[in-house]
Amino acid sequence: MNEDRSKSKTEKFEEAKKLFESKNYEFVARNANPQGGGNIDMTANQNFIRVKGDTLDIYLPFFGVSYMPEYHGRGTIEITGKPETYELTTNKKKKTFRIEFRIKNDFDTYDMTIDAGYSGYGTLSVTSNKRSSISYRGTIVKITTQD
């Protein structure tokens, strides 16, 4: 999101709202926080959630316990497709956003929540039935190229 310091918080909030409503953005994690604790630097690991219209493209390294390992598991959460649910909630007073969605792959169902502010930083929480929960802290930016 725009780093222009001359904009008011309200202007930055409205700009962020338009970005989330456009469904054309990407979350990139800087840190992972597995359920058991710890803080893992993600800056050297490829990772993303790309929201492009009604399609999500997800690639997240997973650090934690897998209760039912998938056959030929890769230690990542990889999904491309349409979520079962997708909801954007705006808190105008606090100038925050919550994006909640549920998406499946052949292995599991994931409930994901992104809590974000107008500044472009956010926290992603991931829960599923077959893996321990994990959260990621990172940045949210507009997708500007054809990825």
Task: Explain briefly what this protein structure is.
The chain is mainly β and 147 residues long. It has one helix spanning 9-22, and strands at residues 24-34, 40-41, 48-52, 55-61, 76-81, 85-91, 96-104, 109-117, 121-128, 134-142. It has one domain: Lipocalin (Beta Barrel), CATH 2.40.128.410.
What do these coordinates show?
There is one protein chain. The chain contains one helix and ten strands, in the order H-E-E-E-E-E-E-E-E-E-E. With 147 residues, the chain is mainly beta. The protein has a single domain (9-142), classed as Lipocalin, CATH 2.40.128. Strands 1, 2, 3, 4, 5, 6, 7, 8, 9 and 10 form a ten-stranded antiparallel sheet that branches. Strand 6 and strand 7 (96-104) form a beta hairpin. The longest helix is centred in the N-terminal third of the chain and has 14 residues, at 9-22.
